[in-house]
Amino acid sequence: MDYAVRGPIPQRAAELKKTGRKIISCNIGNPQALGQPPLSFYRQVLSILEYPELVEIYKGNSLSHCPETAIEYAEYIQGEMDTGLGAYSDSKGHLFIREAVAQFIDRRDNTLERKGVLSDPDNIFLTDGASEGAKNIIELLIKDRMDGIMIPIPQYPLYSATIRRCGGRQVNYYLNEEMGWILTKNELEESYAKAQTENINIRAIVVINPGNPTGAVLNKKCIDEIVSFASEKGIAIIADEVYQENTYDVKFHSFAQSVWECPEVPLFSLHSVSKGFSGECGHRGGYLEIRNMPRLESTNQTMNDVLFRQASVNLCSNTVGQILVYLMVNPPPMDSEAGKLHQTEVNTILSQLRSKASIIKRSFQEMDGVQCFGKVGAMYLFPRLNLLPKQKNDFDYCMALLDSTGLTTVNGGGFGQKEGTHHLRIAFLPPKSILEEVLPKWVDFHRNYINS
Fold this sequence. Notes:
The protein contains 15 helices and 14 strands. It is α/β, with parallel strands linked by helices. It has a seven-stranded mixed β-sheet with strand order 2-8-7-6-5-3-4, with helices on both faces. Helix 6 (129-141) packs parallel to helix 7. The chain is globular, with a radius of gyration of 23 Å.
């Protein structure tokens, strides 16, 4: 198993940090580690749930900065949980949270207005981040070493590592960089046909939208083509949609709405509180929604039943993460004091992310041979390095960049890329002041490196 996001380059950064070097950790989408403040409403509600006695303290203190809405939310959640944060929940997660997730999905997709298929709370599992859901699905889909999962290249290495751990086959399909990292049905067909010649049994296709590491956002046409492809081949779709709030200037289209008319296509959709505007990576909250599960061979069970047994073995996901999922999908009312502050904080975070991405992209224009394709989405930029010295690759470049500037990135080879190309991924999360300090150093480093 390989996982470049925490591989040799960030390990070298940790060594340098021990010596007193200033390190800027742009190798991973970890917003709060780089200064993004937690949302006030989330922490107000969590603080009361962790220490319920605070309710009386807040109510009796006229100087308290905890809004009444947070207290109302906390009291409602306490009543629904019944047993408090320190107890196990249902194996799938608390029902009232799964109901809130289903309502969020239906609002997002305008399901009622468009007469689509409503989300079912019984088909939602609360997970310790989206990663746990992805690993559980792949573990169940791969039966033997000839079972394959199609993944995009470049891809988030969770998928390649998990497929390898489960003993299956990784089947690559390549995104079109020059066209903005989109995918085409022709590319999917070529990838599938090649796997067939190797006797690989394709079980599912992974789609990351918005993309990691590319940041690309797929349009509705692309998503519909993927659903059509999955329908024709009789395979499932694993839709990694954890960056669905990080779209900035383009619209997010979910896979859930695209399978309304395709009940023959099994869909596993993933979301998380780690990304978007929440940035609650350490609390490990997420959900998995499943749709169109077929009956398993020689049994009346569906994948839902198997996933439930798998969740039962783990007892439940952590309850703090579950609460954060509830708050993510059920924010405070916009007309309340808490709601107005919450929306202001959310807008500020998303605006700053967009601005920081623009600052970095402008710096690329000062670097000879650096191209960055596609619209900005997710939390990353994935520029192509066209002018590396002979015998040097993107790993060498990223390691030298770290040693020279303290900037920690991930080389493109860690995500997969077309042979003969070189890239790096940078998370645009540090404060503007840090970027304005380090980017001129990167420009100077680049000039010296490509001319060395």
